[in-house]
Amino acid sequence: MSEGNSIKKFMFVNRKAPYGTIYALESLEVVLITAAFDQDVSLVFLDDGVYQLKKGQQTKGIETKNFSPAYRALEGYDIEKLYVEKESLEARGLTEADLLVDVTVLSCKEMGELMNQQDVVLSF
Amino acid sequence: MLHIINKSPMANSSLESCLRVAESGGDILLIEDAVYAATSGNAFESKIREAMGRFKIYVLQPDLEARGLADRIIAGVSPVDYGGFVDLTTTNKNCQSWL
């Protein structure tokens, strides 16, 4: 890379529910790696991806690690830009109060504008 | 911005989500099973026609041909070959592959 150590805007777009597939967990792993390189990181939750942030996940019965507390730890890695699409929440009967972490709720239009401003968009 | 879709709109919501979220003025490229969305008579045709007012829509010709649908492309959708695919990734500032 010719830009050396310049900071780029990275957006992670999460569109899958947790546990049914490995996407959500893999996204979280890559997000943490990216944060270690001091990049400008945004996390977006769209469609079933909003279920990743649902409060009260109890995974004992499926013998799978509950990784949802990790979203609350992101702040400690200076990842504070979490965005959720309003339409996706509403379509699932959820509100901000159902989410386990503070987020910014954006309309689909605002989400599109934000996506357009990124240097790198990674899809999970 | 370039948006790449690779799933049939009848089996997966990624194209629908892309059309809802993507900012107008961008490019959308349909590849693999998403090429079905670019064929006339498809249940998604009206949504593609509507989207043509906001986006430039491209379809990967080899994927259409492989599925026997090269003669069914919706008028106004632009076919591209692999070279055209590469051009789209370089002329756009950024790119999102919808999974």
Number of domains of chain A: 1
From the 3D coordinates, which CATH architecture of chain B would you assign?
A: 3-Layer(aba) Sandwich
CATH superfamily of chain A: DsrEFH-like
Number of domains of chain B: 1
Question: How confident overall, as mean pLDDT of chain B?
Answer: 95
Structural class per helix/strand content of chain B?
alpha/beta
CATH architecture of chain A: 3-Layer(aba) Sandwich
Topology order of chain A in helix (H) and strand (E) letters: EHEHEHEHE
Mean pLDDT of chain A: 93
What is the CA-based Rg of chain A, rounded?
14 Å
In helices, the fraction of residues of chain B equals 25-40%
User: What is the CATH topology descriptor of chain A?
Assistant: Hypothetical Protein Ychn, Chain: A
CATH class of chain A: Alpha Beta
Radius of gyration of chain B, in Å, reads 12 Å
Describe the global form of chain B. Answer: globular
Q: What is the terminal separation of chain A in angstroms?
A: 24 Å
What's the helix and strand layout?
The complex is a heterodimer of chains A (124) and B (99).
Chain A: E1 9-14, H1 23-36, E2 40-45, H2 69-73, E3 81-85, H3 86-91, E4 104-106, H4 108-116, E5 120-123
Parallel strand pairs in A: 1-2, 1-5, 2-3, 3-4
Chain B: E1 2-5, H1 14-21, E2 27-30, H2 45-51, E3 56-60, H3 61-66, E4 78-80, H4 82-91, E5 95-98
Parallel strand pairs in B: 1-2, 1-5, 2-3, 3-4
